[in-house]
Structures are given as C-alpha cells and as structure tokens.
From TrEMBL:
It is an enzyme of class 2 (transferase). It holds the Pfam family RsmI_C. One of its GO terms (biological process) is methylation. The keyword Transferase applies. HAMAP family: 16SrRNA_methyltr_I (MF_01877). This is Ribosomal RNA small subunit methyltransferase I. Keywords: Cytoplasm, Methyltransferase, rRNA processing, S-adenosyl-L-methionine, Transferase.
Length: 278
C-alpha cells in the first residue's frame, strides 16, 4: 500500500457483508483508522479480525486534529477515515481533514462502498438522473418549514435524512410545503433486519407512519419527487410566498395575500404550514 495516503473508506450501513475485500485490506494495512465513533468502528474492525489502532475524529475535534494527522501523513504514514456508517463526509465529519490533506499535497484516495443516499435512490423508482441531497432538515419547526418552503419549486428529486423522533412531524411539514399528492419514498433501516421501503404520496406516507409505531423507529432516507414540468407554477410559488407571510400574519390573511401576489388559489394555500413552533 502506498504511504502518505489518506484513504476515505465507506463502511456498512447495516449489513456487515457489505464491507468490501478492498476496504478490509486497507483498514488492516493503514497505520491508524480515524473514526467518528471508535466504539462502533471498533466493533466493525473486531468482527473482521482487524487490530489497527483507532483515533477519534468527530465534529468537535476535527479542526484541531487535522494538522497533527496531516503531519503524520507527510511523515509517510497511511491513514484511513471512516464514519459511523456509509460513505464519510455525506452528512458526516471529515471534510476538514480531507481539505487539509489535499492542501498539503497528500494523496486522498476513495474506497467506495455503501451509502444510504445512493441505496435509497436505487430502490425509490423516482427520477434519479438529477437529484439534490439536503441531508438532515433543521430540528426547529420554524427553520424546517422555511427550508421546505424554499425547496417547494425544486424540479430535481430531493433526498433527505431524518431521525426517528422527527420523521412524523417532518412528513407533516413536507405535506404542507409540497402538497399532499407529491410522490415520495420512505426508506427505513436499509440493509438491516427490519428494512422497509414505502412508496406513495406524502399524504400516504404520513398516514402510514402516524398509524404504525414500528415505522417511526430506526434511520430514514426520504426521497421526494421534484416539481414536474406540468406542475402548477402558481401554486408552487403561492406556497412559498404563503410560508414567508405566515411567519408574521394569521394563516387566513397570509393565504389571501399570497393568492393576490401569485395568482394561486386561496383555498389551496389556506392552512399550509400552519402550526405552532417547537
């Protein structure tokens, strides 16, 4: 294995059988593995009989450790970077280290493999030639609704990550911003024992999640179809304007003004995005 290389290694998102032979070899041969959670990554390495030392590298210490790790790389060592699961840097720490290594002239080499984002897209049956990855939506309701209002007119397929304790309210906010009839797919616990992939409209998915506590457990990837060429542009713009006005005005007043500004049907806007902040 070439020295002075930072290997960015994708690890399983659930099924340990997805760790490739090449990834196993790299993790065995590097001087150290930089891991977001050393306990979780330690279990993975132990499963494959890999005894390489682990270094904790997470969002709270990455900036301060990057210089020290780059010095090791410049000294001729090879290091690996892994996240808790999946491909590093996709909603996970690591970009500061990668940026510092590249700025220092160190080779950065990917070891491709599992990614929840790509896995969900591959089974969604929604357009995937063009898509946008939005990661996790804001935890605060007002910020989440503002973000969704800005995305309501996005023509590309949208991909979100979401947690178990926010999936139901996020689906409710998506319905308000995008409309009940927008096609979507909810992928839960991909490659794990209780994997489920639900499809339908946003209203369908919200109802199924609300009715079944099991569908509110685990890790989620939500894939939402973008606005089609035949979409009502006035309605999309009306929802965006309404979401902005509703932050300062009563829902009925916001709907009336948004309808006057955009030409969208007032009845379709009334109540959209209404609800108390958390």
């Amino acid at each position: 294995m070439p020295a002075a290389t930072l290997h960015v290694v994708a690890t399983p998102i659930g099924n340990l059988g997805d760790l490739s032979p090449r990834a196993q070899q790299v993790l065995r041969e590097v001087a150290a593995v930089c891991a977001e959670d050393t306990r979780r990554s330690g279990q993975l390495l132990a499963h494959f009989g890999i005894g390489t030392p682990l270094l904790a590298l997470h969002e709270h210490n990455e900036q301060q450790l990057a210089e020290r790790l780059v010095a090791r790389l410049l000294g001729g060592e090879a290091l690996a970077l892994v996240s808790d699961a999946g491909t590093p840097l996709v909603s996970d720490p690591g970009y500061r280290l990668v940026r510092a290594a590249r700025a220092a002239g160190v080779k950065v080499s990917p070891v491709p493999g599992p990614s929840a984002l790509v896995a969900a897209l591959s089974v969604a049956g929604l357009p995937s030639d063009r898509f946008t990855f939005e990661g996790f939506l804001p935890a605060k309701a007002s910020a989440r609704r503002e973000r969704l209002a800005a995305l309501a007119g996005e023509p590309r397929t949208l991909v979100f990550y979401e947690s178990s304790h926010r999936i139901e309210e996020s689906l409710a906010d998506l319905r308000a911003a995008f409309g009940d009839d927008r096609p979507a797919v909810l992928a839960r616990e991909l490659t794990k024992l209780f994997e489920t992939v639900l499809d339908g409209t946003l209203a369908d998915l919200h109802a199924r999640v609300a009715a079944d506590a099991d569908q509110r457990k685990g890790e989620f990837v939500l894939v939402v179809q973008g606005v089609g060429e035949d979409a009502d542009a006035k309605l999309v713009e009306g929802r965006r304007v309404h979401a902005i006005l509703a932050r300062q005005l009563p829902p009925s007043t916001a709907a009336k003004l948004a309808a006057e500004i955009t030409g969208a049907p007032r009845k379709a806007l009334y109540g959209a995005g209404a609800g108390a902040d958390d």
